[in-house]
Design goal:
By secondary structure, the protein is an alpha/beta fold. The protein has helices at 11-22, 37-45, 57-60, 77-84, 92-97, 113-126, 141-147, 159-163, 190-198, 217-220, 264-279, 284-293, 321-330, 352-358, 370-376, 392-399, 421-436; strands at residues 3-7, 26-31, 49-52, 65-68, 88-91, 103-108, 131-135, 152-156, 172-175, 209-213, 231-235, 242-247, 250-255, 302-307, 310-314, 335-339, 359-365, 382-386, 405-408. It folds into three domains: 3-86, Rossmann fold (3-Layer(aba) Sandwich); 95-293, Mur-like, catalytic domain (UDP-N-acetylmuramoyl-L-alanine:D-glutamate ligase, 3-Layer(aba) Sandwich), CATH 3.40.1190; 302-436, Mur ligase, C-terminal domain (Protein-Tyrosine Phosphatase, Chain A, Alpha-Beta Complex). The chain contains 17 helices and 19 strands. Strand 14 and strand 15 (310-314) form a beta hairpin.
């Protein structure tokens, strides 16, 4: 019996463990941190062995296959030992793909992944297809392959997941954009990060479809990184009132004014979703109805409420500079901007013009404010350094006037003060509601 070890007892790791168990492997899960109770319960229900708080190296290194959590960096000591011993090391998505015949609709990019995946899922579900979503959103692909029988999966893929995927093949794949992000995991080399994103094209065939943005420089100038042989199409946004997509002798058009998601960045998301729908043969009427009925997702330019005529917007998912650029670009009111957290190698000069044009107050939230302060001290009239949420609302309400917008668009990861961007966004929304009373 072959042995599989899973490093990481979270969503992807435990999902992989369940699938491996059902496929007849001897399974062991190892997590250097504490495993959450719900995942322990899942492992116990399938009689899967696990450990937490440390790694038992001899037991791990005796494996035939090792599946690692995307969150574990390649430079981690345990990963280096695995690589040195030439043990097969893969990602949960790679493993899951070996045990499903479902069509895989795959999205990667620095920004826009979650919205686009959610939009495509909504369209396919609306059209009556047997579909689910996975990857960085929802339940792990491996767990769903183990416990369900879907015909389609819409998969959000990070560069970390793509790094350890080899035989995986997408039927439809899109790179939304590539901008500097997670460079701390790629030796601060944008070329390594770019190459990682293009791994989504691996093993694609002539009847598969691969999209990239012709307006995104790092995507358009690195097509040599395409490693499969898919039909390849460049997408872009024109300035007309209608959003138009032509594919496979079909012309689809919809009036931009009626689309629920606002901002130029969402036009890219819509465009890719339409291409995916045409690729899968969704009828025009169903496609239009589903596009018009899709509602915004939480934590992405989410208008939360008004206090004293000041609009509060939760854009907690904006964890890099490019995503924040789109948020600021969409603002048409004076902005009180809340930013800060764990910097991932940000270049703030990319948004300097927008900040100077639109931001009246910058609130640096968290302990790591020096880089933000240095970047914007000469162009923003007022900058506050707030170590936590306790006094955040006082500053917002004292500085804000009717007609202003308070925008939480942090540019940074959340792990200095919060468990995730979701936790950060939820605490921000809770704070707003408490101050309405």
């Amino acid at each position: 019996m072959k042995k599989i070890v899973i490093l990481g007892g979270g969503e992807s790791g435990c999902g992989a463990a369940v699938l491996a168990k059902k496929q007849g492997f001897k399974v062991f899960v190892s997590d250097s941190s504490e495993i959450k109770k719900n995942y322990k319960k899942l492992l116990v229900s399938y009689d899967i062995s696990w450990e937490e708080g440390s790694h038992s190296y001899p037991k791990i290194l005796d494996a035939d296959i090792i599946i690692k959590s995307p969150g574990i960096p390649e430079k981690a000591e345990i990963i280096k030992k695995i690589v040195d011993l030439d043990i097969e090391l893969i990602d949960e998505i790679e493993f899951a793909s070996r045990y499903t015949n479902a069509k895989l609709i795959c999205i990667t990019g620095s920004n826009g992944k979650t919205t686009t995946v959610s939009l495509i899922f909504h369209i396919l579900k609306y059209a009556g297809l047997n579909v689910s979503y996975a990857g960085n959103i929802g339940k792990s692909l491996a767990l769903q392959v183990a416990e369900n029988d879907y015909d389609y999966y819409v998969v959000e893929l990070s560069s970390f997941q793509l790094d350890r995927m080899f035989s995986f093949k997408a039927d439809f794949a899109a790179i939304m954009n590539i901008t500097p992000d997670h460079l701390d995991r790629y030796e601060y080399d944008i070329n390594l990060y770019t190459r990682s994103k293009f791994r989504i094209s691996r093993n694609m065939k002539e009847d598969d479809l691969f999209l990239y943005s012709s307006e995104n420089k790092l995507s358009a100038e690195n097509l040599n990184y395409i490693s499969g042989s898919p039909e390849t199409i460049a997408f872009k946004i024109d300035s007309e009132d209608a959003l138009k997509v032509t594919y496979n002798n079909r012309d689809f058009s919809i009036d931009k004014r009626y689309l629920p998601l606002k901002g130029k960045h969402n036009l890219y998301n819509y465009t890719v979703a339409i291409y995916a729908s045409l690729f899968l043969g969704i009828e025009d009427d169903l496609l239009k109805e589903s596009l018009l009925s899709f509602m915004p997702i939480a934590h992405r330019l989410e208008s939360v409420d008004y206090i004293n005529g000041i609009e509060f917007i939760n854009d907690s998912k904006a964890t890099n500079v490019d995503s924040c650029w789109y948020a600021l670009d969409a603002m048409n009111k004076p902005v009180i901007w809340i930013a800060g957290g764990v910097d991932k190698g940000n270049d703030y000069s990319l948004i300097a013009d927008l900040v100077e044009e639109k931001v009246k107050v910058l609130i640096c939230l968290g302990e790591y404010y020096e880089k933000l302060d240095s970047a914007f001290k000469d162009i923003v009239p007022k900058i506050y350094k707030i170590p936590n949420l306790d006094s955040l609302m006082d500053v917002c309400l004292n500085e804000g006037e009717e007609g202003d917008v308070v925008l939480l668009s942090p540019c940074c990861a959340s792990f200095d003060l919060f468990t995730s961007y979701i936790d950060r966004g939820n605490q921000f929304k809770d704070l707003i509601q408490k101050n309405k009373k």
